[in-house]
Structures are given as C-alpha cells and as structure tokens.
Amino acid sequence: MVIFITAYDQYAVESYNLDVVDYLMKPVSLERFSKAALKALEEKQKRMALLKAPAKDVALTESTSKPLDTPSVQPDYFFVKVDYALVKIPINDISHVESMKDYVKIFLTSTPKPVITKSTLKSIEAKLPARSFMRVHKSFIVHFDKIESIRNQSISIGAHHIPISDLYLEGLMRVLTPPPV
Predict the structure, then answer these.
(1) Paired strand residues for 22
(2) Where does 77-176 sit in CATH, by number?
(3) Helix residue ranges per DSSP H, 72-152
(4) Is the peptide bond before 54 cis (omega within 30 degrees of 0)?
(5) For 94, which of 135, 142, 158, 166 is 20 to 30 Å away at the CA?
(6) Is 170 left (phi over 0), alpha (psi -120 to 50) or beta?
(7) Cβ contacts of 21 within 8 Å, gap of 6 or more
C-alpha cells in the first residue's frame, strides 16, 4: 500500500498509473493524513478478503472472528483546528455540541470552557458514533450518556439546557425509551 506525500503536484497523474492509494500535497493536515490511512486500511482489508476466499465450512468461523491485527476503524478521538493548532477531542469527553453559524462549540466534561472551531455541525456529527450521539435540534448534538434529565422539550446536561426541536423529539424518545414488553 503506497501513499505519496510530496510538495510536487506534477507526479499526481503518474501516481494513479502506479495504483497508489492516495496522493497528498505538503503541508498535510492530520485529518487528511488520517483519511488517507483509513483508505489504505480499507483497501488492504478488501484485498485480504479477496485472497482468502474461504471454503464453505470455514466461512462462518472466519466471518465471526476479527483478525488480531485489524485496528478499530473508528478512533475514540478526533482533532479540530483551534487558533492555528490541532486540538485533540476525546469522544467520550464530549457532553454536547452547539452550532453558531460558521463555528461549532464542543462542550467537554473535563473543562468548563468549550472548544470553539470553525466547522459545521454536520462535519462534527460525521465524526461522532451514532450509537452515542444524536442531533436533537438544528443547532445541537447531545451525548446520550451525559443527559441528566429531559423536561418540557429541554435536555439538562450540567448547567446547560438544550432545546429539543419537534423534528427530533420522536426519534430521541424512541432511542431513549425501551419498547414495551
């Protein structure tokens, strides 16, 4: 698996003829490099699956067991740009996320001040696991584990009160309340 990282764009076309995974131009952001690395990992897994082609009696055991050398595709953190620096955001530390036009405030349980980055709520939402986070308003995403209470279409997380819009209320209640037995 090859990823070219260079300051010269004249080799980009040739790189595709060489069947490289990706072509990165310097300076390379951590987010872009991570994306290229995940692309390489997925390509490797596809190639390995094609090479294995297990027999029918072995197929069940191979499909249910995870190879030991396969890392988790979804890391437990991501990075955002804040004041010309990349700041690590641990996913389990996020209580909620608020959109403010072209910026996003990420509220963490480990610090009283939110991390503010120039981004969209949609791009942050794509980095969060759907099993733990949900959009509850056009401007808010919440972490299920951090919800303390819900009352009058408002979620309480610490001193923060987050509105729940009508559009998301039914979906939120379906996720939070178990089906009747």
Answers:
(1) 3
(2) 2.40.50.1020
(3) 121-127
(4) no
(5) 166
(6) alpha
(7) 1, 2, 3, 36, 39, 40, 43
User: What b/e string do you get for 136-166 counting C-beta neighbours within 10 Å, with b at 16 or more?
Assistant: bbebbbbbeebbeebeeeebebeebebebee
Q: What is the pLDDT of residues 80-138, one digit of tens each?
A: 998 888 899 999 999 999 999 889 999 999 999 999 999 999 989 988 888 889 999 99
Q: Which residue has the tokens 């690395």?
A: 37
Measured in residues, the chain has a length of 181
Domain spans of the chain, in order of start = 3-64, 77-176
Scanning the chain, the segments in alpha helix (DSSP H) are 12-17, 30-52, 56-64, 121-127, 166-176
